[in-house]
Design goal:
Layout (H helix, E strand, L loop, with lengths): L1 E4 L8 H16 L4 E4 L13 H24 L5 E4 L16 E5 L3 H6 L10 H16 L2 E4 L2 H11 L7 E4 L13 H8 L11 E6 L7 H9 L8 E6 L4 H9 L6 E5 L3 H10 L2 E4 L8 H8 L4 E4 L4 H5 L3 E4 L4 H10 L3 H15 L4 H14 L5
Amino acid sequence: MVLLIGNYTPDQQQSMQRFNAMMLQGLRAAGIAAELIRPEPLLGNIKLLGKSTAKWFGYIDKYIFFPRKLKRKLAGGSTLVHICDHSNAVYAKKCKRHKLLITCHDLLAVRGAFGEQTDCPASFTGRILQRWILAGLRRADGITCVSEATADDADRLIGRGPQRPHISVVHMGLNYPYKKLPIEIARERLRKIPSLNGDRPFALHVGSNLRRKNRDGVLRIFAKCREKWNGRLVFAGDLLNEELMSLARELGIADRVVQLHNPEGQMLEALYNCATALVYPSRFEGFGWPIIEAQACGCPVICTNSGPMPQAAGDAGFFHEVEDEEGFATDLLRLTNPEKRAIWSEGSLRNAERFSTDKMIGQYIDIYRGLGAKL
């Protein structure tokens, strides 16, 4: 039996929720007995709470109520526990009589708590929490990291010791069966969105407004292209905050910006298929899921030449230092040539083949067995 520990839904960690679901569905499809449990929003679900109060009530749900539930769940016998997100490593102490695996998606917040520059500054309570998470990681029997860059961070921060967990790399698979579509099918899906009606080309960014995602950089890059290309700029994920919208107006491109709030898989697949390129100048990442999603749809990727991003994009990506916004803009304009885009599209499709969800699940099953699980 594999017990997966998932994420607290009010925290709105959408990528982690998708990973939780991938693991559960993938393991069951492979014939492995698996169950997913997560902290329930009890106090944190009370209506009319202020943001600060909801945060602290959420802490009670996660760090007082859920550990009791977990303890009862584990009292029934031997179970392999897989904490699907390292931010929940605080539960490791409750799993000490069971084999424990933790998936580490990035250690940016932990590094930020130790004063490193990762665009993840920590408050006083945040520093305490990140040290608690690091202590939980050290209790694990095994740690899987989603990229070599994250594994390097884990190796350095966890340090040496007699009970040091084994660290391995398991690349992410796709959380939706993204694929190359006939262009008319993709465009037909986009016609449901009035702001995307018609065949006018566009550049795409997928992500949130977190500073490390560098959406202000995306706006500046696009602005450098506005006189030479009559395209639009589509943001999928979080809606732009007022600061970013103010920058778009200042740059004179606000009328060419389209926003789509968290589009579902089919619509995101159509966006990737129709976009001229994914512009992804992120400052810090643990893996960079949109990179392989885009490539699986044949969408060329222009991304930052640091962390795990070159590893994900492979030889099919365009790479620049995060400050080289002129270089990003030059490559975006280069890809407006249909023939050049077609060449890089083919390379993107080939690279995306490396990231199979079935392969990812198979690697996890091998790791479970290596930890002694009888599956």
